[in-house]
Amino acid sequence: MINYLVAEISSYLEHQDYSLAVRRLLDISLDINKPELVRKAIELSRAYTRVVKDKQESSTEFINAANELIQEISSENLISPPSKLLVSVEQVSKTYTSGSFTLSPVSFKVSSGDILGVVGENGNGKTTLLRCLSGQLAIDTGSVHHTQIREPGYYAIKHQVAFIPQRIPRWYGLLKDNLRFSAAIAGVHAGENDLMVDFMLERLGLGSYANYTWNQISSSYRTRFEIARVLLQKPSLLILDEPLANLDINAQQTILTDLRLMAKSVKHPMGVVLSSQQLHEVEKIADNVLFIKRGNCMFQTKEKAEKVKSYVLELETVAGRDELLRVLGDNKVSIQFNGGFYTITSASCSVQEILNRLVSSDVDITYFRDITYSTKRFFN
Amino acid sequence: MKAHSSVIKKIDQTLLKNNPVTWSSRIHTAGIYGLGFALLLAIISFIAPNDPRNNSMIHYWVILISTVSLLAFIFWMIYLLRFNVFKRFGAWKSTDTVKTFIFYFIIILIIISWPFIPPVIESVKANAAYTSEELTADINSMNVKICQLEQDSIDKRFRRDTFEIDNSITRLQRRYDRVETYTQEAVEAANADNYYLIDTATLRSRLLIADSVKKITDSIYVTYACPDYKFIYQYGLDEYSLLKLMSSMDLYRQVLQYRQAVDKAKLRTELGQLFAKYSPYHDPASLASGRQRYYDYGESSYMSRIRDKYDLYLVNQQIDNITGKKYRWDKETIGICWRLGYYLTLCLAMLVLIYRHTTRRTFFLTLLTSVVLTIVTALFIGMTPYSENAFYIWTITYFVLFIIISAFILNSRNRNLISGISLNHLVFMTPFMPLIVTALYYESLRNRYRFSGDPEQYDTLFKNAELHYFVSEIGGFVLLIVLLTTVYQQAYKKWYALPEQ
Fold it and tell me: What is the pLDDT of residue B112?
């Protein structure tokens, strides 16, 4: 396994994807579980930050250090642990005593290393489901069974299951002190506390903000801080409610990639459940996506992907509906227009074929996406 | 200053990384700065000019420092509660809650102790400036010298009272000391100023305080009371001094019983020096200060005349100032101050603890419930015949009720507001319960034996009451500590972790 990872990181370095290379080196150093390696990775990350700060395109010193670290890592051994079932949700439903909203029975499972995306329109029950899953909200029927928690009771569940709400609670004091406190209450003391806090600061790109306060950092960094804080408590299941809200596209991509990589950690793999409106981004990293509409679970990609009966294409073009129908007319397609783009559905013609036909007919295409297996199909 | 700040920072970081419970209580900063401020206050109180003979201005200091204490408490609270958000679900030990509570208690105690520092330092300074023996010797000396100077003009006639034993006076009358029954004929027969019928027990007490006694018959006694020659006097000084203040009789025997030849000029000089020692505005030559005088013995009395002549009012007042400062901390005052400080600290520490272990909404609803329950209870007690027992029984009933409601937390499937409020009340009431039970016991005894008519049995029953109350106070605190460690921390953890409905 280590050879594959070393090759991956070397490739990043070779193609100047330094940020990703540094993040992977940090992850692998932690997985190897040798403090001196983690320290070196932290130093490398700091060196990279200095390179970026000084606006240098690359630094020989940094690249040499990275290669040295890769060399050290390549001599280590890493064995990926088997995936474990973390939580089993069976027919969970919830009705609020005030208001008329009801979350209809829903079932799913999350294992270590898995990412479950919960998507749906606003006010359709995503947050309710996540809060039930994290033990924040009492359920009416069904069961949420946390299989890896031996000690019964909600205190143990809340200690093991981290929930990051959409609106992150305000904290006071310095960012670094807050991280140290979180690590300390999780039993990470003395030198290990320093090491882990420094690691998280570098891993989530917070190194430059360590001595900043709540008011001095943007919402993107507050989200990163919150992730760093809960990760220091080593949860087995991480639940995030709309973590991508208020983030720019680059920050979204970075957070999602980091979540993916951290969920698959060798040393401490965890399950991740996140809700979001960013369907494509979530679908890209999630192992399973749950689509909720008006409190009902409409679709789970993991279970129903094979049962798809028609192909769906999202298309943006200057051509009109008549022209599209003319080009695709004999393929029994239906075309819907939402004002921005067309949704083309066909039971017999694959997306590839539709695209070929459009290109060969000289139809100008400015954007397209195959949403055959995407929950996007259900948004209308 | 920089080194000091660096040391605190180092302590702060060490605690933060190794002992987050201690760190989050801010004992290291609040404790160090609190004790530092106390030390500074003590130094300022020592340095500040404060003549023990002058009127004490300490109440202004106490008000000022109390305001500073209040501000410091608020500041600490704000700082403390800022780190309240992440503390809930960690690897807490069973002793963490009680440790935190004790830290809160210590910090609040330090803050509350500040207003007591200036009065204590003032007492220390007064004690250092004048010893009790010095004061006693000087008062005796001044009284002797005044008597010597004024021996020819002082009234030397003793007051005479004649007492005739009459044991037909009832016990109840004797108990309330309503025994005097004036009989004009008897007075005239005994040639006395006053004539009283009195029972044997009361006569015994009268004989004890008489300066001289003459037995007329087996049942008639004449007592003689020496006139007051204590021109300068400090009540209670004897308790603290190895020397004894001279009584009027002592002065009479030493100076006035037989006329003495004295060097008046020398006496005046010595007296002037003594007056100047206690009353700096006195002119040793004229022995007067020229201040406005007042009379408390009647303008024409020899006492007023002599006090007026030497302006002894000022001397008495300034000696009074000294003794007031020296002997401020008697057993009773210490008891009151200690209890005031202790209960204020205890209540505030418990409120902080409760706030940090419950939701904000539950905390404020707990306060509201307390107010409502107090009003309801007061109404109920007000509508029934007054009895202290009613208050104690109501309190115990509430306590039992809160135990029952809080017990539902054990089997609850969601976080219930009522059980949270009950748990908060239960915790807050715990240290007071032993005291309430003891008070109920003694109040019941008092009611049972109040009209029994046997004072000895009554006294025996209440012989250890003070000790029992004290043990109850200590026991209440110990009970709170034990329950916080064993039950309350678990209950709070369980309650807070439960999901909301």
Answer: 94
